[in-house]
Amino acid sequence: MIMKVQHECLFLLTCCMILMFDSIVGDECRRPMGLQSGAVRDAQLSARCIATSPLYAWAFQARLNNASSEATSGAWVACDANRTGLFLQVDFLKVRNVSGLMTQGQNGMYTASYQLVYSMDGQRWSMYQDEDATTKVFDGNTDDVGTVTQYFDQGPITARYIRILPLTYGGGNFALRLEILGCAWCDADSPCIAPAVCEDLVDDYECHCTPDCMQGKNCQLDYCGTGTMPSSEYQPSSTEIMTTAAKSCASGLQPWERALIVIFTICPLAALAVVLTFLTQRYLRLQYQMTTVYGRPVSPQPSIISYDVSKVIKSGYLQSYDVSRSRANQA
Ligand SMILES: *[C@@H]1O[C@H](CO)[C@@H](O)[C@H](O)[C@H]1NC(C)=O
Ligand SMILES: *[C@@H]1O[C@H](CO)[C@@H](O)[C@H](O)[C@H]1NC(C)=O
Ligand SMILES: *[C@@H]1O[C@H](CO)[C@@H](O)[C@H](O)[C@H]1NC(C)=O
């Protein structure tokens, strides 16, 4: 029983720490999705259409912080800024949650504004819209070096394909380097414990445990070599609990679990704040009462700092009477 309680405390503590860390870091599904890192492969980037002189400005160069040189344009540049139907496309190969994007220009050129369409299947496209259902026009860059980050006001969109439709440009043509921000269940920090295989579902994930004797949502329970399959008496180790907590926190808690964590972390903090406020007020009142007895200032001032707060709590307000009496005793 005590073990169990310990485990649960451990779980809650881990969750709290993770949630606090999450809120500090602000990881609301805003991780770079791999354009800069190269996790998104060259073949996943495409465009209509590219500049071919002075250099080929391939779509796959449209990666945040890519560098230009004599041999490479280091960005996607449109074939002709006046051509209609221009786009730069990213295919994530899997459905992703996308929450924003970062853009840069290159070589004196930049994309000053753009629209965004997205799709699950590459056939039917949705235009990203403002709250009032008008097509959103994103502010892009104002020079060829700065990075402009745009988050989607209405939270992440779920899509496999993202297309940037450039609208206005500076420096003679559209140039674009890009990072997409978002999240997926099975990205770099997969919730499944290796060597389980993680599969992204639209709003969940599934771990295919290998070998089969690993079990649990994240394949966190290791029965391999024990010769026994899970029984209700099975007590996972603290490390397992921590890992499971970390993984399940990271992969999203049930609303009631969040509520519990709020109750167990925010509420004690709030209670502490209330108690502190209360104590401070009492202490201030005490100070006030000790410096004035029956409304008249006491002279010389008694040394208030020497009163410790615990006495004050026990005895409630120190009565003006007490003060004057103790002063009388001293005299
Ligand atoms: C620019 O992008 C190309 C194409 O993906 C890549 O090979 C190259 O390493 C990138 N350069 C930098 C500086 O990121
Ligand atoms: C695009 O059109 C504008 C105005 O019609 C023109 O001034 C500009 O030279 C054209 N740009 C290109 C690259 O053809
Ligand atoms: C992706 O979006 C869906 C729908 O908004 C949401 O239910 C799910 O939790 C999101 N997934 C991640 C990994 O944030």
TrEMBL record:
Q: Which SMART domains match?
A: FA58C
Q: What Gene3D superfamilies does UniProt report for this protein, alphabetically?
A: Galactose-binding domain-like (2.60.120.260), Laminin (2.10.25.10)
Q: Per the UniProt record, which residue ranges are transmembrane?
A: 259-280
Give the signal peptide as a residue range, or say none if absent.
1-26
Q: Which InterPro entries match?
A: FA58C, Galactose-bd-like_sf
Q: Which SUPFAM superfamilies match?
A: Galactose-binding domain-like (SSF49785)
State any GO CC term.
extracellular space
A Pfam match is: F5_F8_type_C
Domain F5/8 type C positions: 29-183
Q: Which UniProt keywords are listed?
A: Membrane, Signal, Transmembrane, Transmembrane helix
Q: Which PANTHER family match?
A: EGF-LIKE REPEAT AND DISCOIDIN I-LIKE DOMAIN-CONTAINING PROTEIN 3 (PTHR24543:SF327), MULTICOPPER OXIDASE-RELATED (PTHR24543)
Please report the name of this protein according to its UniProt entry.
EGF-like repeat and discoidin I-like domain-containing protein 3 isoform X1
Which species expresses this protein natively? Branchiostoma floridae (Florida lancelet)
Q: Which gene encodes it?
A: LOC118425581
